[in-house]
Amino acid sequence: MAEWLDFQIRLEGYWIWLTLIPLALAGTCYIYRHTLPAVASPLRWTLVALRGLAMALLLAVLAEIVVDWWNKQVIHPWVLVLVDTSASMATAEEGQSRFAAAAAALSDPDFVQALASARLAVWGFAETPYALDLDTLSRVAASGRATDLSWALTRGLEQVADREQLAGVLLVSDGAHNLGEDPGRVAAQAGVPVYALGVGGIRPPADLRVSSLRAAEPGYLGRPLRLEAELSSWGYAGRQVKALLSEGGQALSEQVVVLTEGPQALSFELRSAAAGPHTYRLEVAPLEGEAARDNNAALAFVEVLQERLKILLLGGGPSVDLAFVRRSLEADSTLTVDCWVEERPGRFYQGKQLSPEGLAATDAVVLVDPGPSLMGPALAQYVQQGGGLLLVGGPRTWQEGAVPPEMARLLPVELAVGKGLVTQQTPLSMGLEGREHPVVRLVQDKEGSASDPWAQLPPLPGYLEGVRRREGAAVLVEGNTPDRPPVMAAGASGRGKVIAALSAAFWRLDLLSSGAGGRPQTIRRFWQNAVKWLATKTSAGRVRAWTENSIHRSGEGVVFAAQVFDELLRPQSGANVEVTLGDGRSLQLQDQGRGEYRGVWRGLGAGDYRWRAQVLAGQTPIGGDEGRFSVEEHTLESADLQANPTLLEEIARLSGGHYQPLAQWRQAVEQLNARPRLVQQHRSLAWWGPPWPLILAVALLAAEWVLRKRSGML
């Protein structure tokens, strides 16, 4: 950047004082022409200079001299350029790939000239961002297996040398974000405008893909297992394809499918010959002209169980919610439900008594509107030792002081002291973590992720005020109100798992949505899926480790989590938790506090993996856990090749920038306004007022006096 200096001297007092300076100098010279004793000429002139400067300085102060100067700079702003190099950018449209179109625009001489006066920080990104050179853009391959717009924005901004001089971010992408957190939220918090250039049309390219494959419910040996799949196609309506379901290379079922435009549902029913883990594969033969072929298959992992689950249903007293929950659970033939109702504190109808032995034989416990007597040490110990607990709240539960401390510590939320149920119509919506949680994900029906079934339910009559999600817990369903209160939350405690329903009168969701067009199955299936998830046993001992999913798409980070406990089964922090794959590669999990550890393994190729977690406290081994997962050939990118300009528009709007299609890059660069700026800084020094002129004058006169004394002068 160019820089120069301008200055001037001006008076704020009377100029007559300056005319006395020559007289003062002349008088000083006259006085020192004859000295007693006589001194050498160099000393005489030194004394003249000291006194003359002191007198001149004092007269200049009386004249009130002010010195002004201006430091001027030409600032060349920074521009952060982010270029999407993920595989979706290789999609061909009108005879040219999206990435080739972007490279041509960024290499245009007019584009280079428009940003010639700016300093550019250029980064490419897919799963992760990396430094890029615009001059070599034509040699870059668009092959990333996923797109993380959030990480690209965050990392790119971190690398800009001078954030204060950053004019903005130029984001070149098709908007196909499929990894990481919400980029709109990151852009809104960045404090820098994002100018997005959208690449690709809104019409999906010709493609055929298996969007998903999953079990509709847990499998049981000897009982039918239903697998549900979604097959999506564009540009092949009316064509026939074969969909083959297999396990370990052995064909299990085959269907001939007539393709429609968009998604269509498939269903397979089979019986597993053995209990234990099973990995099923659904594949369709590729068609000519497909934009991607690695998305023609999908995997599903199913744990086939030996028998039906035993559920203990405990009610704090007769209630409509108790009857509703019981009816929902008994409608599932994979569950056996034993219902006990409290007659008075600590006693159940028919003289039944809770015991540790009885609880140990139960796969999951459901509490419906319990009072303090039901939420005691026995249930807390049951959860800590690996049991599953579903707490369905009600008026008894949420009255002040009703939840004992040992139960409050188990919950996935922190309860606020002195707070209770707020009576207010509370519409519902799916929580952010709930979208991927198996309890909520399996609730969704044929609309899949295209709609939120919870938003179509009637509102609850209230919510629990002041609750906060604990670290590591997941909010499955929340209130669709400005403060977004948790309504359904899930988490781990000890070796067990807990789901809490933080409201009351859940029967209303069933009753008021029954009838034409209603969706009572949403809440019914939630109770059923909740107890099945809670009944899935975790490892014993002081260490529990798991992956968030059993099946991952290529390019997706594999999230490992672990909990570590001390000898008294209290959360233990400060441990060394290492996960090792079968080929010897290892990952160190990071301590999240409260005995919880977490890490993400990125870049794993397609295949089946076995892992083992080993935990050390200092140098002492304290336990381990193990498991397996699979990575599909199907990448996150090939899951959806359609451009998403709507997301880019949202990112630009939230950041204070603008969105333009790639063809209109000139408007985007003009709005970016990366022209040089002239910045000047003015400073002034006044001689009247500050103490330094007087101090300097006194110092000069003192030096003169010392020299006179040393010379023996009067």
Write a short abstract of this structure:
By secondary structure, the protein is of the alpha+beta class.
Q: Count of DSSP E strands?
A: 41
Count of structural domains:
5
Q: What is the fold named in CATH at topology level of the largest domain?
A: Rossmann fold
How far apart, in Å, are the first and last alpha carbons? 59 Å
What helical percentage do the residues reach? 10-25%
What's the rounded overall pLDDT mean?
85
Strand content: 35-45%
Main pleated-sheet profile? 9 strands, mixed
Instruction: Specify the CATH homologous superfamily of the largest domain.
Output: Class I glutamine amidotransferase (GATase) domain
Helix segment tally? 16
- Going by CATH, the architecture of the largest domain would be 3-Layer(aba) Sandwich
What does this structure look like?
There is one protein chain. With 714 residues, this protein is an alpha+beta fold. It folds into five domains: 3-73 and 682-710, no CATH class; 77-203 and 642-675, Rossmann fold (3-Layer(aba) Sandwich); 207-305, Immunoglobulins (Immunoglobulin-like, Sandwich); 309-535, Rossmann fold, CATH 3.40.50; 543-635, Macroglobulin (MG2) domain (Immunoglobulin-like, Sandwich). It contains 16 helices and 41 strands. Strands 20-19-18-21-22-30-29-28-25 form a nine-stranded mixed beta sheet. A six-stranded mixed beta sheet has the order 7-6-3-8-9-40. Strands 11-17-16-13-14 form a five-stranded mixed beta sheet, with no helix packed on it. Helix 1 (16-31) runs antiparallel to helix 2, helix 2 packs antiparallel against helix 16 and helix 6 (183-190) runs parallel beside helix 14 (645-655). It is elongated, with a radius of gyration of 37 Å. Residues 445-450 have low confidence and may be disordered.
